[in-house]
Structure formats: C-alpha cells, structure tokens
Specification:
The chain is an alpha/beta fold and 222 residues long. The protein has one domain: 3-Layer(aba) Sandwich (Rossmann fold), CATH 3.40.50. It is built from nine helices and seven strands.
Length: 222
C-alpha cells in the first residue's frame, strides 16, 4: 500500500452558515488534518505571486470565476503533497461540480488513494436565516461573530484585531434563500454519488456546535 493510501481524504459539505468553518477548525485541531479550501488556497497563491496565482488574479480582476483548469490542478497538487507525506486532508468547498469530482477521483486513483468519508451538514432554512442575518464579520482578519449568540466584547469591534465589524451585503433573506437553492442544485449530484458509495454521513447542523462536532469526531475515530 502506498503512503498516500494510508492517509485519509475527508470532505465537508454544507450551505453557507451551516458551521463548516467551525467544524473544520475542530477537525484540524483534534486530528491534525490539512484543511484545503480553494478560496484560501487561491489567496495564498496570489499572495506568493506564483504562476497559478497570477493566472487566477488575472481572471478574478476581469470579474470572472476561476475556471477548473486552474482550480483542479491547484487542489489535487496539494492533496497529493499532503497524502504522500502521510497527512490526512480535509476538503472544504471542493469538489463543487461533477467534473471537479471526476477529475479529483481520477487523480486519487492514480496515487492509490480515495475519499474516505463525506460529512453533509444539513440545516433548516429558518435556522440558517437566524444565523446569517445576525452575522458580523471582520474584514481584516476574517473572524466571525453573531449579534446574539457570539457578540464581540466591544460592540462592533473585532476581539482579535480591533477592526470594525461589518455585515456582508448578501446576508439578507432573499440572498440567503438563493444561496441555499444554488448550493443544493450544485452539490446534490455530488452527494448522491457519495451516498451511493456509502461514504456520505448526514449531520444535523442546527444544533449546538459542540454536539455537532461530537458526531463528526466519533465517526472520524472509527
């Protein structure tokens, strides 16, 4: 068995506001997995001025979405590096489409690896609205707060860096419903594939984050 095959590939799916970020942090902290999110990876490539970063920045400045011919090699390259080093990988926000899934699966097969488990965070639209309509974000460091459930110590100011907190323009009811619909349309075919393979685990995400994570952690230990 190759080194790559000994390390796990775990994927985390959930609509915006389902708590993916919180759960990803906990998984990384407990299990030492490498968290791979395309958005973060693109920002890092751009910051480092790599060829891939320059290509992505050019596309983004033109107001276009970064295409699969940029995303796929970037993500799979990192997956391969981590697995070959014996480190498990947590995918967040990838794959988003069937073509991305097929590209990734072909790559994993080429190095003797495969996706081990997929966590599907499910949350009712009413709970999602409650979370997102009260969300506050730090534009400087990315920290996230909530007006009711996780307020900053000083109203309107980030505890971590002192920057002023803002509300995202798309954190309104109409936008949230549209994003939920888009997420379901986009990811359902992918989740159907994983469910058919017996790899998808449904997690009710409208509970306390600690309780949600207990379910995830229990399954990962298995």
């Amino acid at each position: 068995m190759s080194t790559a095959a000994k390390a796990a590939v775990v994927a985390l799916f959930g609509p915006p506001g389902s708590g993916k970020g919180t759960q990803a942090e906990r998984i990384v902290e407990e299990f030492g997995t490498t968290h791979l999110a395309p958005g973060n990876m693109l920002r890092d490539e751009i910051k480092r001025g790599t060829d891939l970063g320059k290509a992505a920045e050019s596309i983004m400045k033109a107001g276009k979405l970064v295409t699969d011919d940029v995303i796929n090699p970037m993500v799979t390259r990192r997956i391969g590096e981590e697995l070959k080093a014996g480190r498990a990988v947590l995918l967040d926000g990838y794959p988003r489409t069937i073509p991305q899934l097929e590209y990734m699966e072909q790559y994993l097969a080429s190095i003797g690896a495969q996706v081990s488990v997929v966590f599907r965070l499910e949350i009712a639209i009413e709970a999602l609205l409650s979370r997102l309509l009260g969300r506050l974000t730090c534009p400087k460091c990315g920290a996230i707060y909530h007006e009711k459930t996780k307020p900053p110590v000083k109203p309107g100011v980030c505890d971590a860096c002192g920057a002023g907190l803002v509300k995202r323009q798309d954190d309104n009811e109409q936008s949230v419903r549209q994003r939920m619909d888009a997420y379901r349309q986009q990811t359902q075919p992918i989740l159907d594939r994983f469910e058919a393979e017996g790899k998808a685990v449904l997690v009710e995400a409208d509970r306390d984050p600690v309780t949600v994570y207990a379910d995830i952690s229990r399954r990962l230990r298995q």
